[in-house]
Specification:
The complex is a heterodimer of chains A (about 625) and B (about 375). By secondary structure, chain A is of the alpha+beta class. Among the domains of chain A are: about 60-165 and about 230-245, Penicillin-binding protein 2a (Domain 2) (Alpha-Beta Complex); about 250-295 and about 315-475 and about 495-605, Beta-lactamase, CATH 3.40.710.10. Helices cover about 40% and strands about 20% of the residues of chain A. In chain A, strands 2, 3, 4, 5, 10, 18 and 19 form a seven-stranded mixed sheet that branches. Chain A has a five-stranded antiparallel sheet with strand order 12-11-23-22-21, sandwiched between helices. In chain A, strand 22 and strand 23 (about 575-580) form a beta hairpin. Chain A is elongated, with a radius of gyration of 36 Å. In chain B, the strands form two sheets. Chain B has a three-stranded antiparallel sheet with strand order 3-4-5, covered by helices on one side. A two-stranded antiparallel sheet of chain B has the order 1-2. In chain B, helix 6 (about 140-155) runs antiparallel to helix 8 (about 170-180) and helix 13 packs antiparallel against helix 14. Chain B is mostly helical and about 375 residues long. Chain B has helices at about 10-35, 45-65, 70-75, 75-95, 115-130, 140-155, 160-165, 170-180, 185-205, 205-215, 225-240, 250-255, 265-300, 305-325, 345-365; strands spanning about 35, 40, 95, 100-105, 110. The chains are: A alpha+beta (about 625), B mainly alpha (about 375). The interface between A and B is large, with 43 and 51 residues.
Chain lengths: ~625, ~375
């Protein structure tokens, strides 16, 4: 056995060992260079990739501000719903994910794909909502399969809840996802796609206050997308709390009154001393909670195609002929302009001839000799034809505007429409024709081109009630910015005229007589509260066209108005009831009565009234025998 | 047999470097297997297992240091027979984990005999070439050496464990090279390998092995599948930067973006948490161990000792280089662990035992 090498053998071996050492050292040098490239030269790139791997920013949507009524009753609050969302950074097999999710939730795969396609343009960091308002069962089924659903998880989000269901729906409006057109507008600056914004009503008008600011949080996730820890959290800032001028009880009573009698329509009630809106009704209504939960296409279709137009806010957007309620504006104009004195009598033989044409009073036998108070009480057409003729259309126009008719009220709700009280200037400008004095006669009793919104009639009653100050109707009473309630200064009045005391007395007393003497408003009488009011009829179709329209399936029955304030010597509430197709204004008066009773009972600390079993809703086409009607004022 | 004065010839520096790397490995295993429970947490069970293996490994190192390597070499045929018997036993009676049969259950422990294949091959080839006066000059010698390697290699590959199997090749090439394998012959072998590659590709590789290679060549083709590990390895290493994210602060390893981080990808975790500085330190230690061990071959009193060291170091170097390259996504993902650092009891024990032989050769350089 040889234990030692021959010398040349050892030299040979030494060389080969050196080669091995050199080769290995060289390879190590290459490795070191490789690590240098990754760790030093390309460090930034890989660091970003590592962060994207494990850090996720998740938005924490802010709850919108809670809305209260004037006495602190919660009108709008928030609830939490579960959405099933997809983190697109986490899922790399969308098709497979949608298939598994469809099986888990029972939502058709097609629908999920459609949702995915629709929302994929939203910013990538925002979880993509695949199933809105998921049921508990869907959430559990999703969690159970989460290993097959990378990046899919339930997400709890605050959403709007309206405890009164469809109560005051048009006051609140509704919230839904901001749309493309809105995103392009400057007032939506800073709002991201996918955010929920107010789409009408107070939710829209005070959207910025109500929205608050979203927070977000950064979480660490592992390779399966499972959350490990939270490393950063920016709490969402809840939206401002708002106190509205609405009185929930008066609002509820008014809506109850309508339902009780089976009418659709609108109503507005306000405080005549400030313009604060106590109740604002438009029926039929909708439940805004459905929008907040993500309205389904079928419900949306039924809301938008319904002939009764539940989404329309009739109080602000419905324009109707005012009928006899317009006589109040003409009365104020006539007395203030001095074309008659309050005591000056005009003889009504059952009509009168103007410009060669006979205009009928609704009472065939005539009212005999009437002064302003009786003319209002009995709604004598002949009296108002006469003073209207003396006034001329432009002075009627001027005083209508002072009382709020034919102009915008400036209410703090979006999309208010303006009514029309014609003038010579208007006719020249729009119709390009001269005004015929004969047209003034019809205008004097609220017919012809005159139209008004229910809100503007309520403003008129407020202005008449307080003696000439046209306050701006408004809904916002106070805001809580986090440091307690801060009252909001009421907006400045739109106009102020000082009515002469004689005017004030005559009109107030005349309207008081409508309710408390022989007038048409007896159904609104409340002992001890001196309700003043006036009924009116709004023709849907002119008499000549009625038969044809009825054959075409149009509901040709007239709408009824009742405008009111109380108590007449020191008014605390003023308003309007507009009942669709109830044919007679006095049939809406009980609604006003019930609302006012509620208002006064609350104010005086008495138990709130309840509705008695009513007389069956009167919807028959024939004129009931009861109080003196005014169906005959049509020519 | 063991003389007191031999103690003075033990290479304490090399031993220290080995223990240092094993300690770093233990720390990295601790970091990647730490179990978080709410606010607190505890070390994973792998740390304790690895610590036991370290103790057993040091014992194995002592045993292989105490017995004269010549005695072991002279009995290498017996050891070889034992190895083949164990591998056969594994094939028929072994315990199966992760679709592979590699282990023999001994009480609570699982022994992986294939890890000891490199030692036995180094011993038998060192003996065969060292006692042959001509060295490994001609083809027939090479064929015999090849045959010795091929039997356990095929048995291990059958388990299947191609990663461990191929580590036998650098061991035998290391011995053969030092034994004077002609460069021309090496060229012929390389050429034959290149020519054989398509045939092996077509008939010899399983589908998953083929995918591993194709995804290595183009990791982006399948970023969630096989290429995923490679991309994640690069992200892990690259995001560590110059100084690293700090011990137990690596996000890639801690949040399991890197599979079996405590095992195949332990070096990636080191790179992430300790940065380029830590990488340089570990690379330096490994290179030191390799160069220092090859010095033992230079000092060896006989060819058997020199060849033995060369074989062991060649196998060790191959594993280290391949694993580190893989940990940076620079080589296809294969089950080749990083000696000394990766989790794995049999591997650590076998590695320490093999360094017992290297220390053995150096220690006995003056004995007759």
């Amino acid at each position: 056995m040889s234990t030692h090498f021959p010398p040349d053998d050892r030299r040979h071996l030494g060389t080969r060992l050196s080669v091995m050492q050199g080769a290995i050292a060289g390879t190590f040098a290459l490795l070191a260079i490789g690590f240098w490239v990754f760790q030093v030269a390309q460090h930034q790139k890989f660091r970003t990739m590592a962060e994207n791997n494990h850090l996720r920013r998740q938005p924490l949507p802010a709850p919108r501000g809670v809305v209260f009524d004037r006495h602190g009753v919660v009108l709008v609050e928030n609830q939490y719903m579960y959405n099933i969302v997809l983190d697109r950074q986490q899922s790399h097999n969308i098709e497979g994910t949608l298939r598994v999710l469809a099986a888990a939730t029972g939502v058709p795969e097609e629908a999920l794909r459609e949702t995915y396609e629709r929302r994929r343009r939203e910013p990538g960091y925002r979880p993509l909502v695949l199933v809105e308002n998921a049921t508990q069962a869907q959430v559990i089924a999703t969690l159970a399969r989460r290993s097959a659903l990378p990046g899919v998880q339930p997400d709890s989000v605050p959403t709007r809840m309206y405890p009164g269901r469809d109560m005051a729906a048009h006051v609140f409006g509704y919230v839904s996802e901001v749309n493309q057109a809105q995103l392009a507008r400057p007032e939506y600056e800073g709002i991201d796609a996918g955010a929920r914004v107010g789409q009408s009503g107070v939710e829209q008008a005070y959207n910025r206050l109500l929205m608050g600011s979203d927070g977000d949080r950064a979480v660490v996730v592992n390779s399966l997308g499972r959350e490990i820890a939270e490393v950063d959290r920016q709490e969402p800032l809840e939206g401002r709390r708002l106190q509205l001028t609405i009185d929930a009880d008066v609002q509820r009573a008014t809506e109850e009154g309508f339902r009780h009698l089976g009418y659709n329509g609108a109503a507005v009630m306000l405080d005549p001393q400030s313009g604060e809106i106590l109740a604002l009704v438009s029926l039929p209504a909708y439940d805004p909670t459905h929008f907040a939960l993500g309205i389904d296409p079928a419900t949306w279709r039924s809301l938008t195609t319904d002939k009764l137009r539940p989404l329309q806010n009739r109080a602000l957007q419905g324009r109707y002929s005012p009928g006899s309620t317009f006589k109040i504006a003409v009365a104020v104009a006539a007395l203030e302009e001095g074309v008659v004195t309050p005591e000056q009598r005009i003889f009504c033989p059952g009509g009168a001839t103007f410009f060669g044409r006979f205009f009928k009073c609704w009472l065939d036998g005539g009212h005999g000799s009437v002064a302003m108070r009786e003319a209002l009480e009995r709604s004598c057409n002949t009296y108002f034809y006469t003073v209207g003729n003396l006034l001329g259309v432009d002075r009627i126009h001027k005083w209508s505007a002072a009382l709020g008719l034919g102009v915008a009220s400036g209410i703090d709700l979006p999309n208010e429409l303006q009514g029309l009280v014609p003038s010579t200037e208007w006719k020249q400008r729009v119709v390009k024709e001269k005004w015929y004095p004969g047209e003034t006669i019809s205008v004097s009793i609220g017919q012809g081109q005159v139209n008004v919104t229910p809100l503007s009639l309520a403003v008129m009653m407020m202005t008449v009630a307080n003696g000439g100050t046209r306050h701006t109707p408004h809904l916002l009473k106070a805001v809580d910015e986090g440091e307690g309630w801060k009252p909001i200064a009421p907006p400045a009045p739109k106009s102020v005229v000082r009515m002469k005391p004689s005017t004030y007395d005559a009109v107030h007393e005349g309207l008081w007589m409508v309710v408390n003497r022989q007038g048409t408003g007896g159904r609104a009488r409340i002992p001890g509260y001196n309700v003043a009011g006036k009924t009116g009829t709004s023709q849907v179709v002119s008499n000549q066209n009625k038969a044809a329209a009825a054959r075409a399936g149009v509901d040709v029955r007239d709408h009824g108005w009742f405008v009111f304030f109380a108590p007449h010597d020191k008014p605390e509430i003023a308003g309007v009831i507009f009942a669709e197709h109830n044919e007679h204004g006095y049939l809406g008066a009980p609604i006003a009565k019930y609302a006012m009773e509620t208002f006064f009972a609350k104010k005086d600390g008495r138990p709130l009234p309840t509705l008695q079993k009513p007389a069956a809703p009167v919807v028959a086409a024939s004129t009931p025998a009861a109080p003196p009607g005014e169906g005959g004022n049509r020519q | 047999m063991f003389e007191r004065r031999l103690i003075f010839h033990v290479d304490w520096i090399l031993l220290g470097a080995l223990l240092l790397l094993a300690g770093i490995g233990l720390a990295m295993i601790y970091s990647t297997t730490y179990v978080v429970v709410g606010e607190a947490g505890h070390a994973g069970p792998q740390v304790r297992t690895q610590a036991y293996a370290l103790v057993i490994g040091l014992f194995a190192l002592l045993v292989l240091l105490a017995i004269d390597y010549r005695v072991l070499a002279e009995n290498s045929l017996l050891l070889y027979g034992g190895l083949v018997a164990l591998l056969l036993f594994v094939l028929f009676k072994g315990s199966t984990q992760f679709n592979a049969t590699r282990w023999i259950a001994i009480g609570p422990f699982n022994l992986q005999p294939s890890e000891f294949g490199r030692i036995v091959i180094a011993l038998i080839l060192a003996m065969y070439f060292g006692e042959n006066r001509r060295g490994a000059r001609n083809l027939s010698d090479l064929a015999v050496g090849g045959l010795f390697t091929a039997v356990p290699l095929l048995l291990i590959a059958r388990q299947p464990d191609l990663g461990t199997a191929v580590t036998l090749i650098p061991v035998s090439l290391g011995v053969a090279y030092l034994a004077g394998l002609r460069m021309r012959l090496l060229g012929v072998i390389a050429l034959a390998a290149v020519l054989m590659a398509p045939v092996v590709w077509q008939f010899g590789l399983k589908d998953y092995q083929k995918t591993r290679i194709t995804t290595f060549l183009n990791p982006e083709q399948d970023p969630r599948g096989d290429g995923y590990q490679q991309i994640q390895a690069r992200i892990t290493v690259g995001s560590g930067g110059l100084t690293g994210k700090g011990f137990m602060n690596g996000t890639q390893g801690q949040y399991k973006f890197l599979p079996v981080a405590h095992n195949d990808f332990i070096f990636s975790v080191l790179a992430e948490e300790k940065g380029f500085i830590g990488v340089l330190a570990a690379l330096g230690l490994y290179l030191f161990i390799i160069l220092r061990s090859l010095e033992a071959a230079r000092l060896a009193k006989d060819r058997v000792g020199a060849y033995l060291v060369a074989g062991i170091v060649a196998g060790f170097s191959f594993q280290v280089i391949y694993n580190i390259a893989m940990s940076a996504g620079l080589a296809p993902v294969k089950g080749i662990t990083l000696p000394l650092m990766s989790y794995g009891g049999s591997s650590l024990i076998a590695t320490l035992a093999s360094f017992g032989l290297i220390l053995n050769v150096r220690m006995r350089r003056f004995t007759n």
